[in-house]
Amino acid sequence: MDGIISVSKLMLRHWRDIPNKKHSTCVQAYQKRLPLYLPSTHSTLVQKRWASAGKAPVYQDKHRVPKSDIPAAPAAAGLRKHSAIPLRTLNQTLLNAEEFIDLTGRVTKNVRFPVAPEQPSVEVRYFNLGHRKIRFPPDSQGFLYWHLDPDAPLLSGQVRFRITTSSDPATFPEGRDLQLPDGGTWNISLFDIARRSTYSGLRAHLICEKLVTAKVLYTALNLSGLEGARTIRPATGSLIIWKFGQKFLVDLQSRAVVTWIIGSLAGARLCLHNLFSVQIQQSGSTGIAKSSYYRPYTGRALVQFERSTLPEHKGTRTVVLRIVKVIELTKSEGSNDAYNMLEPKEGGLVMTRTVGRHWTPWSVDVDRPQPSGKPHSLSKPLRILFDNETPQDR
């Protein structure tokens, strides 16, 4: 069961009883920092989230913990600990040959963190587009490590697997990150690490190595957005954006492109609806006009958010969307040219049609309210991109 972080008295008592003195200082620091930010199991907020998610019962008893955090029978637990590989560090600058792992041909491999011996081991698995387990590809040998781009917020951190030619950590810089069948990079995102009870040991380890803070984990835990009445949260595989000029892939036939814009301790869901399309009115058999979207082009393109430099946007904080690269482009057979939709061009801006049927660059002024007086639905997430340009602790 994928439960939310449980910081109960029971769990803290487990950590107090850890006999391994080598990690005692780290564990004590973890105990002191974590309760400041992470909710207890009897928190009203967490009770509501568990109840609404439908994935776990409401935790009214402060001593109860998610089922996946309850220790298994001693024999089974002993077998798991014996077969799981102990990892001393995820800091790429501290790796040694003991952290070298060969995943070639395996479906799963368990790893554990000595800093939290009472917590479950982490199952490392490979998956396809349908998130079904498949075997790791050939030459999947190397190091698990914590990855964070130099200019990125801590919220964007993730565990990756670096493929190397040998167990010598000196080969790490020349290695490459494991890729998924769809071309994406294999990873475990901080959002999943913060939310899933099976990653409790990994959470403890990351804090002990000071790769993240409890406050960042709490932000990752609580970040969410709405899709109608449904609550959506970022996870491994979500598109994460934190700066202007960061490229991301779009399908020209897609009805919606969902991204998460994140900052140092903030984030918001952004949904781009009906890019590369035109809204048309069609009369049905009843004579009632129905609105639909016409998409004459198929293919894919790399795009990026930019500060607008257009004359009409001078003095404002306006965002536009530029087409950086057209990867595939085909005009649909029988497409209607009557709508005068412009062909997507590399280097050009994404265009949209106004009420007056004029084509103009897609744009959002993050400070300008709509005619209704309410802010634009995309203002909040896009404003984070401007905030990230201000020097701050990430």
Shape: elongated
Report the sheet with the most strands, covering strand number, pairing sense and barrel closure: 5 strands, antiparallel
- Low-confidence spans: pLDDT under 50, at least 5 residues? 1-24, 35-81
Q: What is the string of SSEs from the N terminus onward?
A: HHHHEEEEEEEEEHHHEEEEEEEEEEEEEH
Instruction: Provide the number of structural domains.
Output: 2
How many alpha or pi helices? 8
How many whole angstroms does the radius of gyration measure? 24 Å
- Mean pLDDT across all residues, rounded? 81
**Proportion of β residues?**
25-35%
Number of DSSP-assigned strands:
22
Structural class: alpha+beta
What percentage of residues falls in helices of 4 or more residues?
A: 10-25%
Task: Give your account of this protein's structure.
- The protein has two domains: 9-222, no CATH class; 239-387, no CATH class.
- The strands form seven sheets. Strands 2, 6, 7, 8 and 9 form a five-stranded antiparallel beta sheet that branches.
- The protein is of the alpha+beta class.
- Helices cover 18% and strands 27% of the residues.
- It contains eight helices and 22 strands.
- The radius of gyration is 24 Å and the shape is elongated.
- The longest helix has 10 residues, at 24-33.
- Residues 362-394 are annotated as: Disordered.
Summarize the structure.
This protein is an alpha+beta fold. It has two domains: 9-222, no CATH class; 239-387, no CATH class.
